Give the backbone structure.
Amino acid sequence: MLDIYSSVWFEGLSTLGNHGLALCLFLVDAGRDHPKYRLRNPGGLMREMIRRANAVTLNMSASLATLRKRRGGAVSRGSYLERGLAKIDLELC
């Protein structure tokens, strides 16, 4: 269980939309098993992502690329994943 308050969830939904919120939720969940910096406050991270999305400074592409690298996958420029994430980032702006 991630313990994200419904108020944060609905704020994220209105700010990020369905796909953006799903990606944020994925990143929050992935943060729970970080090898060095275990996530202690999932709701706080979600709230911070929403704040950054409102300030147009949220970069989910970089977060997902870092997660992929951490889990042993290579990230190549122009990959399908990167192009899709760039499109989502543009939609959030």
Notes: Helices lie at 6-31, 42-54, 60-70, 80-92. Residues 14 and 21 are 9 Å apart (CA to CA). The chain has four helices and no strands.
